[in-house]
Amino acid sequence: MPDSSAPSPTSAPAPPTRDASPPMTPLQRNVKQLGLLFAGAGFMAASIAVARRSVLRRQLESFPKFYSGNRVVHKVDSGERSLMAVQALGLATLNVTSFGIMLTGGIAWAFDLYELRELRERTQTALRRPGNLSKEDEKEMEKMMASVLDKLGMQKPGGQLAAAEETAQEGGAPEK
After folding, report:
1. Most CB contacts within 10 A, which of 24, 33, 124, 156?
2. Which sequence ranges are marked TM in the entry (predicted)?
3. Is the pTM of this model over 0.70?
């Protein structure tokens, strides 16, 4: 008599999948896509404010004091220059990173991409699409490239290889 507590092969639970979450509505999808764009825009505004504040502070530091003489040259040592360079590099990196986040969010929203998996799938379908080139078009392109290479004084691709293959088929050794 079979055990009633053992699951039957037909009623075995399906393994969990990645796509088990309920589908998103178009509005939810659009809001999540725009989230990255707005986060990048906010980050960019903050980085611009920080950079502007730093530049204004450096400008105020460069003004001479009220009762200082105009014949004294202020010398900047290499340590101070290095510190300024590191600060400038940090601010530039912050600005570029924030712009990159905003650009990524904008591109994702414009192309209706939500995940990297979607981008990968679309790229694969585009790459697997059959080409619309005919044999005549390919031969015309080869003739055009051969004429360009001749004008530049360059050898056609596969020229030495084709000559070596021809001599190998004839039974001789390739010439050097």
Report:
1. 33
2. 34-51, 88-111
3. no
